[in-house]
Amino acid sequence: MKTMERRSTCPINFSVEIFGDKWMLLILRDLMFNGKNSFLEFRASAEKISSAVLTEKLNMLVDEGIVSKVVSPKNASKFLYLITDKGIELVPVMVEVLDWGSKYNPNGGPKPLLTQVRQNKKKAITELQEKLRSERQSYGLD
Prior knowledge:
Blueprint: H1 11-19, H2 22-33, H3 39-43, H4 51-63, E1 67-71, E2 79-83, H5 85-88, H6 91-104, H7 112-119, H8 121-138
Antiparallel strand pairs: 1-2
Helix pairs in contact: 7-8
Protein name: Transcriptional regulator, HxlR family
Organism: Dyadobacter psychrophilus
Pfam family, one: HxlR
């Protein structure tokens, strides 16, 4: 695992150095909320991330221990990216970003997850974290 040289020991700086651009949050969104876990699935997202940027960001998430990279059990030439427990701890943060964005985005209509969040945020977060852990276990991880 590579270690990134940090500008300071500030916890906010630490977080910004990992998540300080749109691509990281969108990759996490796709992992957590959209069930995506392959390079091609991430590339197919509406925001059209380039292959080079996606490779860089996925490698950084792997290096930080937020995502693990495993060989697909269905295709040995394909890798899957699965969120780790460290990444699963980010679910409450991502749910808050989702909730805030939908509140102030005039085109951000209700989605099933958003409806769950608005009905019972704590329960929605717990269920999403359990689902992500279960997915990891289905690949023989954890």
